[in-house]
Amino acid sequence: MRLLIAMHLAEHGFFVVEAASADDAMTILQEDDLVALVFSDIQMPGETDGVGLAQWIGRERPDLKVLLTSGRAVPATAGAWPFIPKPYRPENVESRLRTMADV
């Protein structure tokens, strides 16, 4: 699913940087200040999940906007960020991200 949404967003004008885990995402975000939006699954490999990533972003990069997704039950702590449930249509994710970028 990650590859599909990454390809769709890239084809529609987004500059996409992929990360396989929250730890990878944090490394990228520490090195690249051009990232403006983060779209993350809540369930991710590694010690940190998508909610943990969003919390880290809030502390370290509060300028970034985060959109979370999941196909499973959503932890109550995820309610602090915009959310789109799986399954989703790539067009819907694109629309949400564009709206978030404009705010």
Would you kindly provide a written description of the structure presented here, covering whatever features stand out?
This is Response regulator. Keywords: Phosphoprotein, Transcription, Transcription regulation. It contains four helices and three strands; from the N terminus they run H-H-E-H-E-E-H. With 103 residues, the chain is α/β, with parallel strands linked by helices. The chain has a single domain, classed as 3-Layer(aba) Sandwich (Rossmann fold). Helix 3 links the parallel strand 1 and strand 2. It is globular, with a radius of gyration of 13 Å. 17% of the residues are buried.
Cα gyration radius (Å) = 13 Å
Query: What's the total count of β strands?
Result: 3
Assigned CATH architecture: 3-Layer(aba) Sandwich
Q: How much helix, percentage-wise, in residues? A: 40-55%
> The CATH topology is what?
Rossmann fold
Q: What is the count of helical runs?
A: 4
Are there runs of 5+ residues with pLDDT below 50, and where?
none
Q: Based on the structure, what is the oligomeric state of the protein chains?
A: single chain
**% residues in beta strands:** 5-15%
Please state how the strands of the largest beta sheet are arranged side by side. 1-2-3
| Helix vs. strand class | alpha/beta
Give the overall form: globular
- CATH class group: Alpha Beta
H/E element order: HHEHEEH
InterPro entries: Bact_response_regulator, CheY-like_superfamily, Sig_transdc_resp-reg_receiver
Modified residues (4-aspartylphosphate): 41
Keywords: Phosphoprotein, Transcription, Transcription regulation
Protein name: Response regulator
